[in-house]
Amino acid sequence: MDFLTSLVNSMPGAVAQGLIWGIMAIGVYITYRILDVADLTVDGSLGTGGAVCVVLVLNGVPVGVALVAATLVGMLAGLVTGLFHTACGIPAILAGILTQLALYSVNLRIMGTGTGGGKANLPISVDKYSLLVSARYVRALALNNPIFVLLIFCAVLIGVLYWFFGTELGCSLRATGANQHMARAQGINTNVTIVLGLMVSNGLVALAGGLLSQYQGFSDINMGRGAIVIGLAAVIIGEVIFIRKDMNFALKLLAIIAGAVIYRTVIACALTFSFLKATDLKIITAVIVAFALALPVLQQKSAQRKLRRENAKKYDALIARELGGDTDA
Questions:
Q1: What CA dihedral angle connects 160, 252, 69 and 101, to 10 degrees?
Q2: I need a labelling partner for 241 at 20 to 30 A (CA). Which of 29, 57, 188, 199 fits?
Q3: 132: number of CA atoms within 13 Å, CB side?
Q4: What is the model's pTM?
């Protein structure tokens, strides 16, 4: 009974965090699937978004403006990674690592602005500031429930991204990810679209960082550690369970958010078991991600085995008919 009670109590928080991480997962999806670029800037830009948002709110800036500023700073981080990759010729994965490394010091600088020096953790209270989302109200049946707010936020975000990727610029970005050589043959400047894709991706990740810092009530220098793993897990889970080849692009984005919610729900369920502790979170994450990555391969192998069995049955039936015909003759 205690297990079920603990499980039910953890579900609202898991859903709310899943929606926030879903926004971050969409950013990962843009680089990982649409642009086909391995970007590790995510671990740094998530913390950057949280740091910028909290510092600005603490210094009297409205929450909406703080979130916009966090998004713009995240886009700037993506710009740096993109220039490292396109202008300097550094491989994308290494360019992301370099930017992520630099962002650790940048985040400490940001968190020290107007707060009395570089700090690794900055608390922000919903009692003193008008925050958009807060874990305090996650079980409340009210309009300030973060689940309700985040559902609207995600719906608007999906609508904006659906519109953007339907424009000529958005289609150029998708074409670059599908085939860079063909995109260049069509007159598309692939360097520009790669940089743009990285900017949009990291802008979304920083936006998620700003929302996450508000929800949990603090910004931490290490809050982005492992974010890329969570984002990839959400993308893979969403693809395996929901996404089909002929699916509408907006529904694909919705599936990525659903994948993040499922991921956080599974984590919450696992942590309710008495033999697992909060310190086991990393190994639980590793197991879930490994399973999510292996599942498509296992499904493909299962489909191939099924096809071989069906072909073998058809072959046996054909041989039996031929042998039956020879006997009659």
A1: -150
A2: 199
A3: 25
A4: 0.89
